[in-house]
Amino acid sequence: MSEPLFPQLLERALDQHGLLTPEDAQAIGANDAALRLMAHRGTLDRVGFGIYRIPQLAGDQLAQYQEALLRVRNDAALTHETALDLHDLCDINPALVHVTVAPGTRLRRRLPAWLVVHRGHLDAHDLTWHEGLRIATPVRAILDGIATHIGDRFVDQAVETGRNRGLLGAADLRRIDIARARARLAALEAQ
Question: pTM of this prediction?
Answer without folding.
Answer: 0.90
